[in-house]
Amino acid sequence: MKKLWSVILIVGFSMGVLLSGCSQNKDKEPVEVKIDPVAEETARQIRKELRTPIDKAQKTQELGDERTEAIDQALKQK
């Protein structure tokens, strides 16, 4: 019986801790994040540098697809 009470006490304490951890003050105002203009420009340049090879690869793929389609059309006409 003593073991049962200790288990109930431990479970009750655990549930109390879990429930109190989940309850947050929802009335808090959101914190505004200010980004340094230099960091923003750097991020923009990095995005541009990363996108350039991807854009080139997509353009090359499109040109290859157009060429393949043109060849297929030419073969169908013969």
Helix content: over 70%
Radius of gyration: 31 Å
Share of β-strand residues: under 5%
For the largest beta-sheet, the strand count, sense and barrel status come to: none
H/E element order:
HH
Total strand segments: 0
Name the poorly predicted regions: none
What is the overall pLDDT average? 86
Tell me what you see in this structure:
This protein has about 80 residues and is mostly helical. It has a domain at about 35-78. The protein contains 2 helices and no strands. The longest helix is centred in the C-terminal third of the chain and has 41 residues, at about 35-75. The model has no long low-confidence stretch (mean pLDDT about 85).
Features:
78 residues, mainly alpha, elongated
Please describe the topology of this protein:
Elements: H1 2-22, H2 37-77
Q: Care to give the gist of this entry?
A:
This protein has 78 residues and is mainly α. The chain has a domain at 36-78.
